[in-house]
Every structure is written in C-alpha cells, then in structure tokens.
Amino acid sequence: MQTYLIKTEPHSTGLGQAQRKLDAPVGHEVHVRVHAVALNFRDLMLAEGQYRGAHDSPVIPCSDGAGEVIAIGPQVTRFKVGDRVVSAFFADWISGAPTPQNTANTLGGAVDGLLAQEVVLHEQTLVAIPAHLSWIEAATLPCAAVTAWNALFVEGRLKAGDNVLLLGTGGVSIWALQLAKAAGVHVIMTSSSDEKLQRARSLGANATVNYKHTPEWQDEVLRLTKGRGVDLVLEVGGQGTLTRSVASARMGGTVAIIGGVSGFGGEIDPVTLIGSAKRIAGILVGSRDMLEALSSFVSENAIHPVIDRVFSFDQAHEAYAYLKSGSHFGKVVIEVQ
Ligand SMILES: NC(=O)c1ccc[n+]([C@@H]2O[C@H](COP(=O)([O-])OP(=O)(O)OC[C@H]3O[C@@H](n4cnc5c(N)ncnc54)[C@H](OP(=O)(O)O)[C@@H]3O)[C@@H](O)[C@H]2O)c1
User: Fold this and answer.
1) What is the per-residue pLDDT across 77-134, written as a single tens digit (0 to 9) for each?
2) SS3 of 239, please?
3) Ligand 1: residues whose CB is within 6 Å?
4) Rounded to whole angstroms, how far apart are CA atoms 19 and 93?
5) Domains in the chain, start-ordered, CATH in brackets?
6) Alpha-carbon torsion 87, 92, 94, 95, what sign?
7) For the chain, which terminal residue's Cβ has fewer other Cβ atoms within 10 angstroms, N or C?
8) pTM score > 0.90 for this model?
C-alpha cells in the first residue's frame, strides 16, 4: 500500500511517498482502510523538524484519520469488519490524568500516524465514528476537536451562560466555536480577516474583533464584557498574544495554553496572575475518553465540522502548503482513496 513518510530529524524537511507492506493483524490489532486525514498545525512543525517528541526514524505523518475496519486480530472485542473508526491522538492515554507514560506515543510523531492508504492500530487507539459524519468530517475529531473539548469543558469547566475568547479561525478555534455554541456558551472571536469574522458570526459567534485593525484587542474584549473579562481564553497564539490573553480573562478566570501560531514563547507577569487570581492551564490534546465524550456530544447536537478545503492523497504537499499559508477557516483535509 501507498504511504507518506516523514523524516523528523532536526532540520530535515521531507514528506515523501513510499510503498509499505502490512502484515495481517494479530492479537488486539485492527487493520483500517483510511478514507480521510485531517491536518493540524503540528503536522507542519513535524514536517519542518520543529516538534519535540518526534521519532528519529521516518514515521507515517498525521494523528487524525478516519477509515473502515477491513480485518481484525483474533483478540479484538471493540470492533468488527465494516465498522467506521477514527484514531485517538495518543496510542495509550485512555482515561484519567495524563502521565509521561500514557502520552509518550503520539500518532504521526513518536509512532506511525494515518497518512497512508491502510494502517494497523491497536483497538484501544480507535473510536467509533458518529453516524451522521462523513469520513472527511470525522477525520477532524482526534486533535483539534478533542483539544477544544478538553480546554472548554474539562480544564475550562465552562457551562451554559459563561463566556469564552477564541483566537483566530484555525482548526482548534472553529471547532471550539461550534462546541461552545452548542453548549450555550457566549463566544468572542478574533481574526485577521473581516471576511472570516463574518463567517464566524454566521456560525454563532456573539462578538468579533479584528486583531490587525485593533492591535490592543484585549481592551475591546474588556469593553465587550463590561470590564469584567471572559471566563476562559483558548490561547493558541503564543508569543504574540499571551499577555493580551491573560489581560482578557476575568478575575478568577482561566487561560488555557494551547499553542503558538505566532511563535512559541511569550511572558507572563506573575503579579497579574496573583492580583486577579487567574488560572493558567496547559492543554495536551486529550484522552480517548474525551474523544468518546466529544463524539457523543457531536452526535447529540448533530454538529458538522467546518471543512475549509479537501485535497487528494497525491496533493499532500499542496495541502501542507495551504495550511501553512493560514488562508483556511476551520479544517484542511486529505481524502485517501
Ligand atoms: N496543546 C495542544 O494539545 C494542541 C492541540 C492542537 C493544536 N495546538 C496548537 O494550537 C495552535 C493552533 O492549532 P490549529 O491546528 O488550530 O492551527 P491552524 O488551523 O493552522 O490555525 C491557524 C490560524 O491561527 C490564526 N492566527 C495566526 N496568527 C495569529 C495571531 N497572532 N493571533 C491570533 N490568531 C492568529 C490565524 O487565524 P486568522 O486567519 O483568523 O487570523 C490562522 O488561520 C497551534 O500552535 C498548534 O500547535 C495545540
């Protein structure tokens, strides 16, 4: 079968196609024909050798994929041939708190991922797909959606009537917008583009701020919340946004630290946290239990994720370049045939 492989040594950039032969599944292994793979910012970092925890030897890239079970090992109990499944981000983090052990094996980083025509995974690394989702839609669940779920409802503990600030209109933030609105949460959203903000409002964003036109956007967030600040910020910006995100949170509020699309870094003045009793919470995607809870919520609320653009398997390089351009709104997906 045809696969992509990525070399992840420092300074290497490489996304090449290769042929691989898969052995029949044994024990708890499940053989999956992959139909769609969703890209994340992390996949760009991995391709450019900038990601911690990557494997030294070439791995199959991408954590997020959806496909159909075509064979199972003799000890498999969770799935049967024909089932529709999606991968979990961590091979071993099933439930409970993260540990160094259960978060060591990330798909598409430390161990093989999904950008291949077929993969063999342990049954514990797979979850059933919500029935109303297509392959392309389901492929977006494992990383961006679980991260948004964890930040909003696990670490962020949001409930109906609370408010959240979402930065930019990439995969995590648009998933967070859809989940937050379905849960009755008030959303303030930023973007560099008025056109994208218009789309965010059409998806339910209650208020929007263009961070290019309003560089001190935290002042606008405070104005919109009558000086109080938001209950939670999903901080995906990094060094260009961190200080403003902290300033946007209310007294006793939480800043969920997720990423660094403007560069990893930034400084937090401890006094601003102490004086207003704010909480900083690091988010590390989430467990398989969170993926299952998310999938139930997505089914109950009939949510269809926002897919910006779909590329073919042979266009993986173009898909990566498109994600890197930042022109997207929501998710970029590769269809695998
Ligand atoms: N901790 C975790 O578990 C975890 C999980 C998933 C992702 N992440 C991280 O979270 C970040 C977002 O991931 P993603 O997959 O959603 O990325 P993505 O889809 O590539 O999002 C890119 C978007 O970020 C926005 N952006 C760029 N610069 C910005 C700035 N200065 N201020 C505000 N927004 C800005 C842009 O939105 P506009 O065009 O609207 O301006 C851009 O389209 C990445 O750093 C990723 O590594 C972490």
Assistant:
1) 999 999 999 999 999 999 999 999 999 999 999 999 999 999 999 999 999 999 999 9
2) helix
3) 40-42, 143-144, 147, 167-172, 190-193, 196, 211, 236-237, 240-241, 258-262, 283-285, 323, 326
4) 30
5) 2-140+305-335 (3.90.180.10), 145-282 (3.40.50.720)
6) negative
7) C
8) yes
